[in-house]
Amino acid sequence: MGQIFISSKKEQHQVNKNIYGHFAENIGRCIYDGFWVGKNSNIPNHNGIRLDVIEALKELNIPVLRWSGGGFADEYHWKDGIGPNEQRKTIVNTRYDDVVENNHFGTHEFFDLCEMLDCEAYISGNVAQEMPEWIEYMTSESESSMAHERKKNGRDEPWEVAFLGLGDETGGRGGNIPPKYHPDIYQRYQAYARNDIDSSIYKIACGPSMDNHYWMDVLMRIVGQHVDGISLHHYLRTGDWENKSSAFCCSEKEWFTFTSRAEMMEDSIIEHCAMMDKYDPEKRVGLIFDEWGSWLAVEPGTKPESLYQQNTIRDAMIAVIILHIFQKYGDRIVMANIAQTVNVLQALILTDDEKMLKTPTYHVFEMLKDHQDGMLLETREKHLSENISSSVTKKGDTMTISLCSYSLDTFSIIEYILEDGVFAEKDIQAYALIGDKMDAH
What we know:
Layout: E1 2-14, E2 21-23, E3 45-46, E4 49-50, H1 51-58, E5 64-67, E6 91-93, E7 99-101, H2 107-117, E8 120-125, H3 130-139, H4 145-152, E9 163-166, H5 182-190, E10 202-209, H6 213-223, E11 229-236, H7 252-279, E12 286-294, H8 313-328, E13 333-339, E14 349-352, E15 355-358, H9 360-368, E16 375-382, E17 387-392, E18 399-404, E19 414-418
Helix pairs in contact: 3-4, 5-6, 6-7, 7-8, 8-9
């Protein structure tokens, strides 16, 4: 018998609810056909935003949603997406399959979406001259030209932008900018990223790839005092980028390769945290995984750049492992955004015209949502290999324990031991998400 020991009086740090954040980008059918169907659609919608997706996501208590990119943000011109729909500029999405888009989903529609979900807005903007004007358009209460433009387009009151990302993957396809030059770009544009309402915008600098610790060192050393957060991206795969394995029919070797690679994230996180601690021992600067998830081969018959992949119990298992790691380092990791919410990569929801389904990953977020803003507890195990995390609400009235077992052929009998006996057994509820095969979906 395995044992799990939980010390309900040994609180470690708060699990920032934003670790359970989400990401939506103009790729494939994430925005169009995913969130947005248009006001004249037969699919039930509110001002063009489909209601079945909203109702499903509201069950998860989504804390924050990131938009417009990703890579799409580097070439997105926000002025194309404001004003009457019939006057909006049609574009070719050169980032993904050269899809023609009508820009009917823009700034106003994004904030409508956030208001419907009751979540914070995370704007990801390009490092271009127009970004300060976008911030002014969204947040200004003054008599400025951008505020007048917003009012003309039907919004009198400014919106609150909680988070602002400056650039996306600037060390790679976001400009191939060297690490020593990137801090200069960040300092230039963050100086103009002013919020007229107050100084509450949380500014996020584009960080390195997962294993580029040198980039983190340079960024923290030069601009650590002028940044609120630094972003990292990390995707899990089997095979190489050109020959990614399928979401279906994985072998036992691929199954355990995936789990081990998920667990290996912790080693790199430890190194990044150590680098940040060197310049920021008070942990003021947050580490943000604003893109993460499994990246597998697209479904047969779909366009390669649509990034539409099926979601299985294996993806759900990966989500638990990674979310547990994020919670473990919650004194430094303050936000994460799974890629992506609908119809792209490790999606929580898949749609097909009027049909909509919740994936195994969706159910993970549903089952773990009570960890949000809880206090992480000291948890130890004996005779177990499972991945475990536990937390208690700030009021101390509810404890959440989550466990991931990725054995293919054994069951575990587990005894939970509360070392100070605070919680009564009468309050216990248990839920399980189980697949009968490796590609259950």
